[in-house]
From TrEMBL, chain A:
One of its GO terms (cellular component) is outer membrane-bounded periplasmic space. InterPro entries: Bact_Solute-Bind_Prot2, Peripla_BP_I, SBP_2_dom. It comes from Kaistia soli DSM 19436. Keywords: Signal. It comes from the Bacteria. Residues 30-286 form the Periplasmic binding protein domain. The keyword GTP-binding does not apply. The keyword ATP-binding does not apply. It is found in: Periplasm. Belongs to the bacterial solute-binding protein 2 family. It holds the Pfam family Peripla_BP_4. GO terms for molecular function: carbohydrate binding. This is Rhamnose transport system substrate-binding protein.
Automatic annotation (TrEMBL), chain B:
Pfam families: BPD_transp_2. This is Autoinducer 2 import system permease protein LsrC. Part of the ABC transporter complex LsrABCD involved in autoinducer 2 (AI-2) import. Probably responsible for the translocation of the substrate across the membrane. It comes from Kaistia soli DSM 19436. GO terms for molecular function: transmembrane transporter activity. The chain crosses the membrane at residues 55-83, 95-117, 123-149, 161-182, 210-233, 245-277, 283-308.
From TrEMBL, chain C:
One of its GO terms (cellular component) is plasma membrane. This is Ribose transport system permease protein. CDD domains: TM_PBP1_transp_AraH_like. One of its GO terms (molecular function) is transmembrane transporter activity. It is a multi-pass membrane protein. Pfam families: BPD_transp_2 (PF02653). The keyword Ribosomal protein does not apply. InterPro entries: ABC_transp_permease. The chain crosses the membrane at residues 12-32, 44-64, 71-88, 94-115, 122-147, 167-194, 215-236, 256-282, 289-310. The lineage of its organism: Bacteria, Pseudomonadati, Pseudomonadota, Alphaproteobacteria, Hyphomicrobiales. Signal peptide: none annotated.
Length: 328, 324, 318
C-alpha cells in the first residue's frame, strides 16, 4: 500500500515532466540562463530571444533559477552543457560562480558566453552587453544631477547584496559622483532583497533618516515599485526625485505621478535578440565585426575585440513624456 | 521542556519586558537621531507594520494551538494577486478587497485541510504548500508583475473614521474579536487545550479537528486582510511577494511570549513584538547601521529575550530546589 | 524487538526510495535518451554533496527528538565558509582554511546546542534566531561580495573525479553517511539517539545523558554544515555569503522524504541519502527536459505532502 502510493506520487511527477518535454530537433540550440525567472525584464529578453531564434533558424531554450540562487543557476548551466546545447549565454549572478562550468563547457565544445551580466575572468567567449557598466552608472548620475542639482543628497536602494552586476553599477555611480560632482552626497547603498515590500520599508526609513534627501536610486528592477511607492505614500513627490534601472511598463504609473523623474534602461528584448544572434555567430564560427548591422535590430552593435564586449548601444532614458512609446 | 513558571506570571513579565524594551529603544534612538522621534517617522513605522501585525495575530493563534504556517506570506501574495487583477479590471475596490479576503479564507481552508485531514505535522505540510503556492503565484503572474495598479483601493483606505486611519481600526477590530474569542468563548479554551495536548483535549471531548481547521481559516483570512492593505500601500504584486513575512511573524510572536509548545497565547505581546522589531529596524537605519544587519538584529533579539527567560527560569528552578 | 521492527521499516523506506530513483531515471531517460551517461551521474552527485551533508545533520537533530530541528544549517554553511575566508584574507595561512571551516561549523552548532539544552529554548525558535544571525552576518560582514583566492590544490580536490564520481562526494559525504549509519545501528550512542527521540522521559529514566547527547548532536550538525561550507569553497573557487540560502528547507524536505518522523525516534540515514539523490535527480531531469524551473518548486512540494499522507495512511493501518 505504502509503496503503491509513493510510486503513484512519482508517476504523477514524471507525467508532469512529460507534458513539458520538447521533442528533439536537428536545429542548433542556443540557450539563455537569466538570473531569475518571473520578472518582466528577463521575460522581455526571452521574447527577443525567441524572435531571433525564429528569424535565424535555431532552437531557443530559456531556463533560470526561481529565486536568484547562484547554486541553482550553476546547476541549470551545468545541465544545459550536459544536454549538449551548441551555444549557451548566461546572465551571471555571481562572477566567480561560472568558473567550474566554464571548463566543462570547453571540454564539451559548448560555446559559453555571458549576456546582461558579465564574468570577465571566466574564459567566456564574448560578453553581450546592454551598455557598459560605466556608461550605466554615469548616465544615471548625470541625468539625476540635471534634475536635482549638484548640491544634493542621494540614497541608493539595491536588491540582493550578492548581485555582482548591480554592485558594479553602484561602484561606477560612486566613481562618477566623486570625479564630476564633489558636492553630491551619495549615501551608502542599502539592500532590500527581492521583495517590493522590503524596498518600500528601506526607502521610507531612508527618507525619515534624511529629511533633506533629494533623490533615490532603485538599482535592482525588483526595487523600482517599492521605492516609487514609498515616495508616493510619504507624500514627497516633487521633493524627492527617484530614478532607477526600470522598464517603462514597471515605471509608467510612477513616471506619470512624478515619483520617478526618469528611468534608465535599454530594450531587453533587443538584448535578447542580440544574445541569440551572437550565439548563432559563435556556432557558425563567424567573427564579430567592429560594427555589426543585424537585420531585426534597430541599431548596429559594436564589438570591442580587446575586452570581448559586444555592445547593444547607449541606454535609453525614459520620462513621463516618452514612456508611452514603449511596451516592455 | 515544560515551562516551570506559572502561566499568568510569564505573560505579564514578558509583556512588561517588551514594553520596557520598546521605551528604551525609542529613548535611545531619539537621543541618537534628531529625526527618529517625529510624527512623520512614527507614521512610517506604523505603516510598515500593518501587514506583519495582521499576519502575526493569526500566527499567534496557530502557535498557541501547537501549529505553525510557513506558507502564510505566499497566501497573502495570492490574495494580493486576486485583488490586483480585479483592480486592473476596474472592479469596485470594496468588492476587490472582499474577494481578496475570501481568497485568504479559501487558502486557509486548503492549508487547514492538508494539515488536519492529512494528519501531517504543520511545519512539514506548510513547507510543502509553500512550494505549491509559490508555483501558483508564478503561474498566475506569468512573469509579468502587476505594477502601478489603479489607486482606487488606496483612496478607499485613506478614509479616516473620527480622525483614526482605517488600518488602525481594522487592526484594533481584529485584535478585539480575537481577544474576545480567546477569553470569553469556549473556542479560546479549547484552542489552548489543543495546544497543551491534542490527545488530552480530544479525551475531554474537544472537537480538536474543528478547532485546528478553524484556526488555519482565521489565519488565512487575516492574511487576506493583510493583502488588502498590502495592495493599498504598494499597488504592486511581484513573484517574491511576502516571502519574508512568515519567519518575521514567527519571530515577532515568539518574542511576544506566545509559546510555540502551544497552550499559551499573548496577543498584546505579539503587537509589542512586531512594534519592537520595526522600531529597531527603522531606528538602526536612522542612526546609520546598514540594512544588511537587520536580520542579525532580529535574530539576536529573539535569542536574547529567550535566553533571559531561560536563565531566569533556571535560577528560579535552583531557588525552588534550595528551599525544598 | 522494537529495534528489529524499526530496522525493517528503515530498509523498506530505503528500498522504496531506491525503486523511485531507478524509476525516475528510467522514465527520464526514456523521454530524453541523451541524459543517460556518466557525465549526468557526476553532475547529480556533485549537486547532491552539499545538500546530503546538511540533510545528514538535519536528520540526526530530528531523530534525537525534543522537537529537534536545525533551521540555522544553511546559515552555518554560509558563515563558516565566509569566516574562514575572512580569516585567510587577514593573514591566516591558507592551509588552515579547511580546519577553520569545520571548527567554525562545530562552534556555530555548539551555540545551537547550548541554547537548546542549557537555556531550554525550543529548537525551532533557537535555530530560527541563529538562522537570522548566521546568514545575516555572512552577508553583512562581506557586504554581499564573493571572496576569491581559493588555492589550486583545494580546487583540484573540490572539482576532481575518480571514475566519474566527484571527490568531495566519495571522500566526505559518503563516509559521513556510512559512519552515521554504523553509529546509529550498531552502537550504544545510536540506541540512545533513537531512545531519546522515541520517548525522552523514559530515556532520562534509564539514565541516558539526554542533554549531553543532544548538545553533541547539534554540534555535529554544525560541523557537517562547516564541511559543506568547505566543499562549497573548494568546488566553486570562492566564498559566497548566500551559498547556504534555502538549504534549511531543502534539508528538511530531504529528511521528511527519507522517512524520518518529524517527532524523532524513527527513520534512518540511508533513506535520507536516497531522498537527496531522488530530489537532485528529479531536478536534473526536469532541467534536462527544459521544464520551467518553477514546476520544480511545486512538484517537490506536492511530492512531500503526498509521501507524508501515504505514510500516515499506512501507519494508521498497521
Amino acid at each position: 500500500m505504502k509503496d503503491m502510493v509513493r510510486i503513484f506520487a512519482t508517476a504523477a511527477a514524471i507525467a508532469t515532466i512529460g507534458v513539458g518535454a520538447a521533442f528533439a530537433q536537428e536545429k542548433p540550440k542556443v540557450a539563455f540562463v537569466p538570473q531569475i525567472v518571473g520578472i518582466p525584464y528577463f521575460n522581455a529578453m526571452e521574447a527577443g530571444g525567441k524572435k531571433a531564434a525564429a528569424d535565424l533558424g535555431v532552437d531557443f531554450i530559456y531556463s533560470g533559477p526561481v529565486d536568484g540562487n547562484p547554486v541553482d543557476q550553476l546547476q541549470i548551466v551545468q545541465n544545459l552543457i550536459d544536454q549538449g546545447v551548441n551555444a549557451l549565454a548566461v546572465s551571471v549572478l555571481d562572477a566567480s560562480a561560472i568558473a567550474p562550468v566554464a571548463e566543462a563547457a570547453k571540454a564539451k565544445g559548448v560555446k559559453l558566453f555571458t549576456s546582461d551580466s558579465d564574468a570577465p575572468d571566466s574564459g567566456r567567449l564574448v560578453y553581450v552587453a546592454q551598455a557598459t557598466d560605466e556608461g550605466l552608472g554615469d548616465a544615471i548620475i548625470d541625468e539625476l544631477v540635471k534634475r536635482v542639482g549638484e548640491d544634493a543628497k542621494i540614497g541608493i536602494v539595491s536588491g540582493e547584496a550578492t548581485a555582482s552586476n548591480l554592485n558594479a553599477w553602484i561602484g561606477f555611480m560612486q566613481k562618477r559622483a566623486a570625479a564630476r560632482y564633489p558636492k553630491l552626497k551619495l549615501l551608502e547603498p542599502q539592500y532590500a532583497g527581492s521583495t517590493a515590500q522590503r524596498a518600500a520599508q528601506v526607502s521610507s526609513d531612508l527618507m525619515a533618516a534624511n529629511p533633506d534627501l533629494k533623490g533615490l536610486i532603485a538599482v535592482a528592477s525588483s526595487t523600482c515599485p517599492g521605492v516609487a511607492q514609498a515616495i508616493e505614500t510619504a507624500g514627497k513627490i516633487g521633493q524627492i526625485t527617484a530614478t532607477g534601472y526600470c522598464s517603462p511598463n514597471t515605471a509608467r504609473a510612477y513616471l506619470k505621478s512624478g515619483a520617478f523623474g526618469f528611468t534608465v534602461l535599454w530594450d531587453p528584448s533587443q538584448l535578447g535578440y542580440l544574445t541569440v544572434w551572437a550565439g548563432k555567430q559563435l556556432i557558425d564560427g563567424k567573427a564579430f565585426e567592429a560594427s555589426n548591422t543585424i537585420p531585426g535590430m534597430t541599431s548596429p552593435a559594436t564589438y570591442d575585440a580587446a575586452t570581448g564586449i559586444l555592445l547593444l548601444g547607449p541606454p535609453a532614458i525614459f520620462t513621463a513624456e516618452n514612456v508611452d512609446k514603449y511596451d516592455f | 521542556m515544560i515551562n516551570v513558571l506559572p502561566r499568568g506570571a510569564v505573560v505579564e513579565k514578558r509583556e512588561l519586558l517588551l514594553l520596557a524594551a520598546c521605551v528604551l529603544a525609542i529613548a535611545l534612538f531619539a537621543i541618537a537621531s534628531p529625526f527618529f522621534a517625529t510624527a512623520d517617522n512614527a507614521v512610517t513605522i506604523l505603516r510598515n507594520s500593518v501587514e506583519l501585525l495582521l499576519i502575526s495575530l493569526g500566527m499567534s493563534l496557530l502557535l498557541a494551538m501547537g501549529g505553525v504556517d510557513v506558507s502564510i506570506g505566499t497566501v497573502m501574495g495570492l490574495a494580493a494577486f486576486v485583488i490586483g487583477r480585479l483592480l486592473t479590471a476596474a472592479v469596485d475596490p470594496s468588492l476587490a478587497a472582499l474577494a481578496g479576503i475570501l481568497a485568504g479564507t479559501a487558502l486557509g481552508m486548503v492549508t487547514g485541510a492538508v494539515v488536519v485531514f492529512g494528519r501531517i505535522p504543520a511545519i512539514v505540510a506548510t513547507l510543502g504548500l509553500l512550494g505549491v503556492y509559490k508555483a501558483a503565484i508564478y503561474l498566475a503572474l506569468g512573469g509579468a508583475w502587476l505594477s502601478g495598479l489603479p489607486p482606487t483601493l488606496t483612496e478607499m483606505l485613506q478614509v479616516r473614521i473620527v480622525g483614526v486611519p482605517i488600518a488602525v481600526i481594522v487592526i484594533a477590530l481584529s485584535y478585539g474579536v480575537i481577544w474576545l474569542a480567546m477569553r470569553r468563548t469556549p473556542f479560546g479554551l479549547h484552542l489552548l487545550a489543543v495546544g497543551n495536548s491534542e490527545e488530552k483535549a480530544r479525551l475531554q471531548g474537544v472537537n480538536t479537528k474543528l478547532i485546528q481547521f478553524s484556526t488555519f481559516v482565521i489565519s488565512g483570512t487575516l492574511a487576506g486582510v493583510a493583502a488588502v492593505f498590502y495592495i493599498g500601500t504598494y499597488r504592486n504584486v511581484e513573484m517574491t511577494i511576502g516571502s519574508t513575512l512568515a519567519l518575521d511573524a514567527i519571530a515577532a510572536v515568539v518574542l511576544g511570549g506566545t509559546s510555540i509548545l502551544g497552550g499559551k497565547c499573548s496577543l498584546l505581546g505579539t503587537v509589542l513584538g512586531v512594534l519592537l522589531l520595526r522600531i529597531l529596524q527603522n531606528g538602526l537605519l536612522l542612526v546609520g547601521v546598514p540594512s544588511l544587519w537587520q536580520a542579525v538584529v532580529t535574530g539576536a533579539l529573539l535569542i536574547g529575550v529567550l535566553s533571559i527567560e531561560g536563565l531566569s527560569g533556571r535560577l528560579q528552578l535552583k531557588f525552588a530546589g534550595a528551599t525544598q | 524487538m522494537i529495534a528489529l521492527r524499526r530496522m525493517r521499516g528503515q530498509n523498506l523506506v530505503l528500498a522504496i526510495l531506491a525503486a523511485l530513483w531507478v524509476a525516475t531515471i528510467i522514465g527520464l531517460s526514456a523521454l530524453s535518451p541523451a541524459m543517460f551517461n556518466a557525465g549526468t551521474l557526476t553532475n547529480i552527485l556533485q549537486f547532491s554533496t552539499i545538500l546530503s551533508l546538511v540533510a545528514l545533520g538535519q536528520t540526526l537533530v530530528i531523530l534525537s527528538g525534543g522537537a529537534g530541528i536545525d533551521l540555522s544549517i544553511g546559515g552555518t554553511v554560509s558563515l563558516s565558509a565566509m569566516l574562514a575566508m575572512l580569516a585567510f584574507k587577514t593573514g591566516m595561512p591558507i592551509a588552515l582554511v579547511p580546519p577553520a571551516c569545520i571548527l567554525i561549523g562545530l562552534l556555530l552548532g555548539a551555540i545551537n546546542g547550548l541554547l537548546v539544552t542549557r537555556l531550554r529554548i525550543l529548537p525551532l525558535i533557537a535555530t530560527l534566531g541563529t538562522l537570522f544571525i548566521y546568514s545575516g552576518s555572512a552577508l553583512a560582514l562581506t557586504g554581499g561580495a564573493a571572496m576569491s583566492g581559493v588555492p589550486a590544490w583545494m580546487l583540484a580536490w573540490g572539482r576532481g573525479t575518480i571514475a566519474s564520481l566527484p571527490l568531495p562526494f566519495i571522500t566526505i559525504a559518503l563516509p559521513a553517511f556510512i559512519v552515521a549509519g554504523i553509529v546509529l545501528l550498531w552502537t550504544a550512542w545510536g540506541r540512545w539517539i533513537y531512545a531519546m527521540g522515541f520517548n525522552e522521559r523514559s530515556a532520562r529514566l534509564v539514565g541516558i545523558p539526554v542533554d549531553r547527547v543532544r548538545f553533541l548532536i547539534y554540534t555535529i550538525s554544525g560541523g557537517l554544515g562547516g564541511l559543506a561550507g568547505l566543499i562549497s569553497l573548494a568546488w566553486l573557487g570562492s566564498g559566497r555569503p548566500n551559498i547556504g540560502q534555502n538549504l534549511e528547507l531543502e534539508s528538511l524536505t530531504a529528511a521528511m522524504l527519507g522517512g524520518v518522523a518529524i517527532v524523532g525516534g524513527r527513520g534512518g540515514v540511508g533513506g535520507v541519502l536516497a531522498a537527496v539523490l531522488l530530489l537532485v535527480t528529479l531536478k536534473t531531469g526536469l532541467l534536462r527536459l527544459n521544464v520551467n524551473t518553477v514546476w520544480q518548486v511545486g512538484i517537490v512540494g506536492i511530492l512531500l505532502i503526498a509521501v507524508l499522507i501515504a505514510d500516515r495512511l499506512t501507519t494508521h493501518r498497521r
